[in-house]
UniProtKB/TrEMBL annotation:
It is found in: Cell membrane. It comes from Alsobacter soli. Gene3D superfamilies: UbiA prenyltransferase (1.10.357.140). GO terms for cellular component: plasma membrane. Keywords: Cell membrane, Heme biosynthesis, Membrane, Transferase, Transmembrane, Transmembrane helix. The chain crosses the membrane at residues 56-76, 97-117, 123-144, 151-170, 176-199, 220-241, 247-268, 280-304. Converts heme B (protoheme IX) to heme O by substitution of the vinyl group on carbon 2 of heme B porphyrin ring with a hydroxyethyl farnesyl side group. Carbon 2 of the heme B porphyrin ring is defined according to the Fischer nomenclature. It is a multi-pass membrane protein. InterPro entries: Protohaem_IX_farnesylTrfase (IPR006369), UbiA_prenyltransferase (IPR000537), UbiA_prenylTrfase_CS (IPR030470), UbiA_sf (IPR044878). Pathway: Porphyrin-containing compound metabolism; heme O biosynthesis; heme O from protoheme: step 1/1. This is Protoheme IX farnesyltransferase. Pfam families: UbiA.
Length: 323
């Protein structure tokens, strides 16, 4: 595909590597891994009882499993990473780590994380973690990503499973609450990534990835963004309506959800030039904050209780008013 990708193949055959510990850590996609840890923790805290020692060990195993998925994704996607500007400096296309090393590293972490989770907690959670890794690496990376414009929609399920894995690790079962948490991430994924794809469509086109803007065009993508956001916002309020989140969560979800709709509408209306790019970047950036705030407030409520979080919010508002 390119001189860079040719060098990846050559280096893999020679078995040489200049990789450092930092390069191997980068293969784990640490930013994605941190999000997985965060959402897994929220799923765990919805369980009736959480053993701190078992919970910490399970969280570590799930984090390693998420990192293994990222590593195997980079192993398989090394050819397209080499021709995309935003990924060309990753360890494999940059020539610092060989593909064989990445494959061995990823497989070792995958097996180790699943076995550890099974031995420490239960095999229901371990099975779901194994399926999540399989789904991300095989179903999404090897198949959907290069085959359909709906790659992000279907493949987004892999990033939505962690709350369910966390709950299963504590209970050996599933719950309606974690299905809702799954649904929030699942519905959040398309508008989040399509906003970025609108800006990076030339990169995806060069790499031959059929992202929605490349296949259906920017206008169709903008319509899909606003439609998904219209569904996401009420689903984001479900934890409060179902009773496992309180008033603070409802307020944060309602306000940030309204802002998501405003930003999605801007993306839909602003279709040319710098204004269109700023609108897309604005939605992309705020969507990260939106998901973080929903899960952070829910986590605070689950740890300290709905009433205490509400009382702290009221006290803070009074202090701000007094100032």
């Amino acid at each position: 595909m390119s001189a860079v990708s040719d060098s990846i193949v050559t280096e893999s055959r020679s078995g040489l590597s200049n990789g450092t510990a930092g390069d191997f850590f980068a293969l784990l996609k640490p930013r994605v891994m941190s999000l997985v840890v965060f959402t897994t923790l929220v799923g765990m805290m919805t369980a009736p009882h959480v053993n701190p020692v078992i919970g910490f060990t399970a969280l570590l195993a799930i984090a390693v499993g998420a990192g293994a998925s990222g590593c195997l994704n980079m192993w398989y996607d090394a050819d397209i990473d080499a021709v995309m500007r935003r990924t060309a400096k990753r360890p494999i296309p940059a020539g610092r780590i060989t593909k064989d090393e990445a494959l061995g590293f990823g497989m070792t972490l995958s097996v180790g994380s699943v076995v550890t989770l099974g031995l420490v907690t239960n095999w229901v959670a371990a099975g779901l973690l194994a399926f999540t890794i399989f789904f991300y690496v095989v179903i999404y990376s090897m198949w959907l990503k290069r085959a359909t414009a709906q790659n992000i929609v279907i493949g987004g399920a892999a990033g939505a499973f962690p709350p369910m894995v966390g709950y299963a690790a504590m209970t050996g079962s599933f719950s309606l609450e974690t299905v809702v948490l799954f649904s929030i991430i699942f519905l959040w994924t398309p508008p989040h990534f399509w906003a970025l794809a609108l800006v990076k469509s030339d990169d995806y086109r060069r790499a031959g990835i059929p992202m929605l803007p490349v296949v259906a065009g920017d206008d169709a993508t903008r319509l899909q963004i606003i439609l998904y956001t219209l569904v996401l916002v009420p689903v984001g309020l479900l934890p409060a309506f179902m009773g496992f989140a309180g008033l603070p969560y409802a307020l944060v979800s309602g306000v940030t959800g309204a802002m998501m709709l405003v930003l999605a509408w801007r993306v839909y209306r602003r279709r040319e030039g710098d204004a269109a790019r700023k609108a897309a970047y604005g939605l992309f950036g705020f969507s990260i904050l939106y998901l973080f705030l929903l899960y952070a407030v829910l986590l605070a409520e689950l740890i300290v209780g709905h009433d205490r979080v509400a009382a702290l919010g009221t006290a803070a508002a009074r202090l701000v008013g007094a100032a």
